[in-house]
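In the laboratory, one determines a bound structure by crystallizing the protein with its ligand and collecting diffraction data. In a computational setting the workflow is compressed into a single prediction: the sequence and the ligand go in, and a structural description comes out. We illustrate the idea with flavin-adenine dinucleotide.
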Amino acid sequence: MGGDAAVIRGARICYQSTPRTPDADERLIRRLLSSHPRHNTVFEHAVFRLGVKCPLFVARQWMRHRIGTFNEKSLRYCAAAREYYVPDDESADTDAYRAHQEASFDLYERLIAAGWKRERARGVLGLATYTEFVWTVNAWSLMNWLEKRLDKGAQWEHRQYAEAVLALYGEAMPITATAFAEEVLGR
Ligand SMILES: Cc1cc2nc3c(=O)[nH]c(=O)nc-3n(C[C@H](O)[C@H](O)[C@H](O)COP(=O)(O)OP(=O)(O)OC[C@H]3O[C@@H](n4cnc5c(N)ncnc54)[C@H](O)[C@@H]3O)c2cc1C
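The predicted complex, in structure-token form:
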């Protein structure tokens, strides 16, 4: 929502300026992102709303990012679907991992059939269980998340989501996303 144009509007009102050449807006955004300290608030005029499906362990890390709004599927009100993340590196241990997930769901369903409340029965499910949430976040906070979760120090699974969102960012806000990738991420 807003896109590059919202950032440019926010910045130009500060300087009461109008672009003189077609690429002046691009240079302006690049300067705002590379200056220190960065002129952060102009990027808050552009907002994203993303629907995410990911393992619970990724969601837990994601929701540490406080500047943004989340709403998540409730396992009090909804039954958990038998969907869980399995790492790609197949091995004998992966079979045991898969069997463990299946056994957890078997027990979960048995407890519910026996009359347990969903909110209690969910306690037997593992962190690989998929959850779903909607995330509304402004472009500044999105870039903070991207910078942290694209870093090699971040968990590989979380990085895959960050790479996917970076690609969406490039489609939705090509000027800002390119400047961010080059000036901040050094790509
Ligand atoms: C690789 C990695 C490993 C991590 N490991 C752990 C871990 O082991 N344990 C753990 O608990 N967390 C861990 N975290 C989470 C980390 O500590 C942050 O909570 C998370 O990355 C969110 O970052 P943030 O605070 O910048 O984002 P947001 O919460 O979105 O905040 C954005 C910015 O707003 C400002 N801000 C927000 N709230 C406040 C506030 N209360 N006071 C002052 N300024 C504020 C800060 O400038 C902050 O950078 C890890 C994160 C990463 C990337």
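Residues 64-67, 141, 144, 148, 153-154 surround flavin-adenine dinucleotide (CB under 6 Å). Keep in mind that any predicted model is a hypothesis to be tested, not a measurement.
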